[in-house]
């Protein structure tokens, strides 16, 4: 993500389900696939939804650690896929592509996989074969597993009592 104050794009469980199903609609004509490889952890939920829609029962994982909350570190593969070979016939899924760092690393392991994400930012977009929604590079996508509902002060209070009545 670009430096500076991020704008946020908040995704609910319902929207994620809807967007993951939209991804499945785009992928159905690209299959059938031998199996799905989810890039953990963010790719796990979209991969489950897509696998259900494509009636795909074989699920693999590849685990990449890149970010510590919103700070980016050195990417490392902490668990390679046990099966999937060079990715031929496999569908590789992540929740999003941002800088493309994770995608480059995993595409190096599975160069022949079809790579799909639900969301894409411009810098990583060229690395993705199929995606649903593009957001700007300075947007931080907030997923439902990273957020919770909480109390918000009334507008009048946060405006310093400026509201008339
Ligand atoms: O294109 P990039 O700049 O590499 O960013 C995209 C990656 O960042 C997030 O994963 P993260 O590393 O936060 O790990 P997580 O999926 O375990 O939450 C997201 O799920 C993508 O995998
Ligand atoms: N949750 C989340 N993780 C990310 N990792 C890289 N970019 C993002 C983003 O926009 N949102
Ligand atoms: Mg991830």
From TrEMBL:
Signal sequence bounds: none
SUPFAM superfamilies found in the cross-reference section: PRTase-like
State any single GO MF term.
Answer: glycosyltransferase activity
Reactions catalysed: GMP + diphosphate = guanine + 5-phospho-alpha-D-ribose 1-diphosphate; XMP + diphosphate = xanthine + 5-phospho-alpha-D-ribose 1-diphosphate; IMP + diphosphate = hypoxanthine + 5-phospho-alpha-D-ribose 1-diphosphate
Q: Does the keyword Glycosyltransferase apply?
A: yes
Top EC class per UniProt?
transferase
What is the top-level taxon of the source organism? Bacteria
Q: Which HAMAP family match?
A: XGPRT (MF_01903)
- Function text: Purine salvage pathway enzyme that catalyzes the transfer of the ribosyl-5-phosphate group from 5-phospho-alpha-D-ribose 1-diphosphate (PRPP) to the N9 position of the 6-oxopurines guanine and xanthine to form the corresponding ribonucleotides GMP (guanosine 5'-monophosphate) and XMP (xanthosine 5'-monophosphate), with the release of PPi. To a lesser extent, also acts on hypoxanthine.
Q: What is this protein called?
A: Xanthine-guanine phosphoribosyltransferase
Q: Which organism is it from?
A: Craurococcus roseus
